[in-house]
Design goal:
This protein is an alpha/beta fold and about 220 residues long. It contains seven helices and five strands. The chain has a five-stranded parallel beta sheet with strand order 2-1-3-4-5, sandwiched between helices. The longest helix is centred in the first third of the chain and has 28 residues. The chain starts with a helix and ends with a helix.
Length: about 220
């Protein structure tokens, strides 16, 4: 009786040993983290664009927009997430940002918001608070920030216009972030590069806008 038990135990022991050997061999053949075998994985940046219609390809083909052209200029491995929405305000962007940061873990956040706040005559102080919160959230998520400034038509009055544009400069100084003072530099004053509404640039203007952004962004991508 004892001999039969011993034989059975030895048999089960050999089977168990065989299965353990298979499991160990399988684990050795499969990397725990596939990225660990690729030294370049993780080096390509992810860029998150938080903008309004100026970045959302308003009334032009999406592939002609400056954001699409930016994606084509970056290394193939880089990722551009365009979370821009036409009509977006800084308040709307601030409400959406946390989820986007968690979802995409961007290395660089491009903030192109404020134009619709200005066109609606919203208080510049409110816009500044919203953008400040977005900068703080981005930096807390270890993302670098590029602030893309905008201007508004002069018919809103010199005092309001000055307070509006000063928001971008104040934020850039307070948070030590890169700034493009005016996204539509060299475009807004050229009727041939603006759509009939006088607010949105044409497809022909998009490469110029990209060059304006790239002048500040290139070093950030290279780091």
């Amino acid at each position: 009786m004892k001999r039969g038990i011993l034989v059975a135990w030895r048999k089960h022991y050999r089977i168990l040993t065989l299965w353990l050997g298979v499991l160990i061999a399988t684990a050795a053949a499969s990397p725990v983290n596939a990225a660990s075998d690729d030294p370049d994985t993780g080096s390509a940046p992810t860029l998150l664009v938080m903008g309004d219609s100026l970045s959302a390809a308003y009334n032009i083909e999406r592939e002609t927009s400056w954001v699409a052209l930016l994606e084509a200029r970056l290394p193939e491995e880089a990722t551009v997430v365009n979370a821009s929405i036409s009509g977006e305000t800084t308040s709307g962007g601030a409400q959406r940002l946390d989820e986007l940061l968690g979802q995409h873990a961007p290395d660089i956040v491009l903030l192109e918001l404020g134009g619709n706040d200005g066109l609606r005559g919203l208080p510049p102080q409110q816009m500044q608070r919203n953008l400040a919160g977005m900068i703080e959230a981005s930096q807390a998520a270890d993302a670098k920030v590029l602030l893309l400034g905008i201007d508004i038509p002069p018919n809103y009055g010199d005092a309001y216009r000055e307070a509006f544009t000063n928001v971008y400069h104040a934020l850039a100084d307070d948070y030590d972030v890169a700034l493009v003072p005016f996204l539509l530099e060299g475009v807004a004053t050229d009727d041939a590069l603006m759509q009939s509404d006088g607010i949105h640039p044409t497809a022909e203007a998009q490469p110029i806008i990209l060059d304006t952004v790239w002048e500040a962004l290139e070093d950030m991508v290279a780091r």
